[in-house]
Amino acid sequence: MKANLSLGSVFGIKIKVHWTFIFLIIWIIFSELKHGGNKDSILFNIALVLAVFVCVILHELGHALTAKHFEIETKKITLLPIGGMASLERIPESPKQELLVTLAGPLVNILIALLLYFIIPVKELMHLNFTETFESLSSFTLQNFLFYLYIVNIALVVFNLIPAFPMDGGRILRALLAIKMNRVKATQIASNIGQFIAVLFLLIGLLYNPILIFIALVIFLGAYGENKIVQHMAILKGHTAKEALMTNFTTFQPNDTVKDAIKIIISGTENNFVVIEKDAIKGLLYYQDIIENAKNENVLIKDIMNSSFKTIKSTDDLKTVYQLIHNQKNSFFPVLENGNLIGVIDSANLNEFILFQPKFVY
Ligand SMILES: [Zn+2]
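Above: the input record for the complex with zinc ion. Below: its predicted structure, written as tokens.
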């Protein structure tokens, strides 16, 4: 089952919906039926949720397009039942850039809310007394639809600005701290605050709202993960690929078979391989492809290898390699020096390299 449904792309950025999104729709239908809703109320609420998620996509595009301005590409925007996520190829290290990229998201919702404020018009609704407002808001009209959308956009701004790193508010906090202190320390503080707020969300979620429990988990793990990444990047700064590469590695010829590869896998710890012919790299043979073809041992390696791949130069900064490894599905790369293959690098040996650096804190 594919995890994401593709909705197409905007400005070259793929927009995807996670399959669990369907649970949100099912949940709306159930909760409407439970509260005596009818076809109209169900359709109204589903349409509202879809409109909210269009606003969420626009919010994420705000981040992505500002990042693009700083030459940072965004691979995709994913919609989850708990919100959206823009997968930037890297987080800007300059606090000013991070601040602008982060602020652009909530700013989009502020603009949408402002636009709706004048279209609806909200002012007229405010003049009514409580009972009148309540009555006027309970019908399924376009004006009410837009009014709810207006409220949700304001709520999105407020919620996103809670300083729970790695949510927007937390990123703003980290960026502001990083102006005054080094980025590792700033991230540590922001992620501690983020994890503290996540625990509060978890407690509130357990009492009142199950969706908040998921958000709490995402924040808690996100804060932990990003803090680790920043620490690792600081450790790797100034080191080159040549220092971390593996020089004991097996290569194959295009006409070798899957059987040959399996033999090497079983007799050692190598999983991925470089395929060479006459000193030139022809492709990479990944573990996953070997497993998938294991039943047919006579398949030639040239038929299952990947011929489009990235290579690393021995002089490349390990920080760049780290980012590459974290952004690619297959984290195995050949390392070249003056065009010659001198080694390979993968996530396991890069992690080992980090572990043995004096700056590493257990
Ligand atoms: Zn955002």
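Notes for the reader.
The chain has a mean pLDDT of 90.
The chain has three domains: 1-161, 163-236, 241-355.
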